[in-house]
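Allow me, if you will, to draw on your knowledge of protein folds for a short while. I have a record of one protein: its chain in single-letter code and its fold written as C-alpha cells. Could you please explain, in whatever detail you think fit, how the C-alpha cells follow from the sequence? The record follows directly beneath this note:
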Amino acid sequence: MTHDLKEIFAGGGATPAPPAPAALAAKVRTLAPSMTRSMQRVAEAVADDPAGCAALTVTGLAELTGTSEATVVRTARLLGYPGYRDLRLALAGLAAQQQSGRAPAITTDIAVDDPIADVVAKLAYDEQQTLADTAAGLDTVQLAAAVSALAGARRTDVYGVGASGLVAQDLTQKLLRIGLLAHAHSDPHLAVTNAVQLRPGDVAIAVTHSGSTGDVIEPLRVAFEHGATTVAVTGRPDSPVTQYADHVLTTSTARESELRPAAMSSRTGQLLVVDCLFVGVAQRTYEAAAPALAASYEALAHRHRARKGP
C-alpha cells in the first residue's frame, strides 16, 4: 500500500469528466429507466446507431426520434455531456470502435435448450458487461465521500433483503475483518430499532437494486433523520431510497429474463461497489486495518490447515 491516498482520491468536488465513448452505451442502460419516454427515445437511438446519429444535427436527431431539440440537449446533459456537440463527438468515437470489430457478438438471452457451454459463455459475458457498466456509471466523487464517512465512522449499519441482504452481509464481514464496527440487518424491525440508535458520526447503507424496497428505505430514513451519514447502493438513481441518501452509488441496470432474474446481475454490480468501498476504507485506515486483517487470518488459520491423522 504505497500510493498516497491524496493522489488516489484527488479531485474532491471537481466536476466529473464526460463519459468516454466506450462508456456511453453503459450510461444509457443505467439511466434509461429514470428518463422520460421522449428522452428514452433519444438515448436508445444514439446507443443503437451511434454512427448514424453522429452525422445528425440536433434538429435532425430530434426529427428522427420524434422529440424536440430541447429534449435532445437535455438527454445529452443527463448522459454527462456539456452539450449535443460533445455527445456527437462521443458517438463518432463509439462508431469507430464498433467498426473496428470490438463490438460484442454474443447475446445474453438464455434459452431453455441451450447447451451448458453456451450458458457459461452467456452468463460470463453478462457478468462482465454488468461490471463494466457499473464501473462506467459509478460516481467516484460520491464513492470517495462514502469511503471517508465509513473510514471515520463510530459504527456502520447496512440494510438489505433477499439477494441485496447477502451483499449487505458481505460488506459488514469485510469491515469487521479490518477492525471496524459494522452490522448487517435483514430483519426490518431490527433494522429500524437499530437505526434509532444512530447519530452523527455513524453511517447507514441501504442496498436495494430497485430503490423502492420499503424494508430497506424505512431504516435508512430513520438513520437519516437521526443525523447519520447515509449511503444508497441502487440501480435506480431517481428511486425513493435516494431521498434519504447523502451519497448515491449507482449500479448497472440489470436485464431480466425468465431464466435469469435481475437479482443475479444486480448482485454482481452491488458486489463491485462493496469491494470498492472496502478497499477504499482499507486504504484510509491502513495502519489499523493491516494488523486487524492479519489477526483475523491468524485466528482462522487452524481451520484451513489439513488435519493430520492420529
Notes: The radius of gyration is 22 Å. The chain is about 60% helix and 5% strand.
